[in-house]
Known about the structure:
single chain; 4-stranded parallel β-sheet; alpha/beta; 11 helices; globular
Amino acid sequence: MKLGVFDSGIGGKAVAESLQKEFPEAEVLYVHDREHVPYGSREETEIISLTDAAIQPLLKEKCDAIVIACNTATAAAIEVLRARYPGVPFIGLEPMVKPAAALTESGVIAICATPYTLSSARYQSLKNRFAQGVKIVEPDCSNWASLIEGNALSEQQIEATVDAVCGAGADVIVLACTHYHWIKEDIIQFANGRATVIDPSEAIARRVRDLVY
Length: 213
Ligand code: DGL
């Protein structure tokens, strides 16, 4: 089996590594777009054309499935890609609003994501469908992806954000950008038991299993 993984940057590396672990027999091909990362502050049309260009090598390789391991690119481009390449199974990543809403006891959840994801229609629809009656805190993470890309996001900045969302009552923190995988342990440590931190790694593997096996 050949699995393609795309992200704007190093978020997809974490997804590719975890898929390779989950499916050792698979050939996992990972592409990213170092030249244009971050995508999260770009316009929708730009994200669509950059994503389409970046996945061309995966299309050429005739992958059995292509994981758009980027919440931002999924929100902007997945429907367009499905329409353009109807024979290709695309798997997208979306903010885990539904599991977070089911998990919260305080009734407050925090969604950490890029500006584009937070402003997207897909995210609005997830909130409308699954988070009625739940308060959602959306901290400013607008420079996180590029700082993580350069390994330059400071512990102080992470701590301040985690303190702010926990202070606002959030008991679930959703990592809705694959780049944040690389600071997940810091977020857990700064939350210090005040909030559960969730990300979609297991859900992606399940989705791949359902779709391809
Ligand atoms: N890793 C991407 C995501 O999951 C965002 C990074 C970027 O802004 O390019 O949303």
